[in-house]
Automatic annotation (TrEMBL):
Protein name as catalogued: DUF1211 domain-containing protein
Species the sequence originates in: Candidatus Opimibacter skivensis
GO molecular function: potassium channel activity; proton channel activity
Transmembrane segments: 12-29, 49-71, 92-111, 117-139, 160-193
Reactions catalysed: K(+)(in) = K(+)(out)
Amino acid sequence: MQTTKHIDKTRLMFFSDALLAIIMTILVLDIKVPEGLDLATNGEFFKDLIKVLPHFFGFIISFAFIIVLWLSHHDLMESLLYANRRLATFNFCFLGATATLPFSTALAAAYPHQSYAVATLALNMFVMNIFLATLHIYSVKTGLRDINYFPIRYQKMKQMLGVGGGIVFLLAIFVSFFSPTIALITIAVVPVLHIIPISSPE
């Protein structure tokens, strides 16, 4: 009988951390210094800086969301007893969806009043959320994870935030076709929700 091959969870965690760090760095590259401002008046200089704000806010939202996902991903990896190929595959799907975030963020920042641009960002975040939730569910269902590693209250709160985040992103996709601005505000709510103090995993 062929047994399921185990994968070193430490290597998987380090690879994921490295890729997420690269993605977070790429996000800031979309914030570019306006050109030709050396001869600009103070008023013109200020107006050109204002044009950069959507990219700056987009960076903040996406950067904060990746931090939220990284914390959840870190909890998952820390509580794993071991990893297998299927878990690694789900993990790569999560990383692949996350790798497209710089594009969807730049798109929404460049066209913040375009419904499809904002919907693309919300959809991207929804898919990231789904793949991470799949990782958590699969690891518990298959016994790969020590379910007693964290306090029960902490686990339940994280589950509620994960489900709530997915619902918020779906809502943002729908709202974007009526008001892209409100949809962007809706997206920004998710990282804020995770700031709410919950039981420490320690």
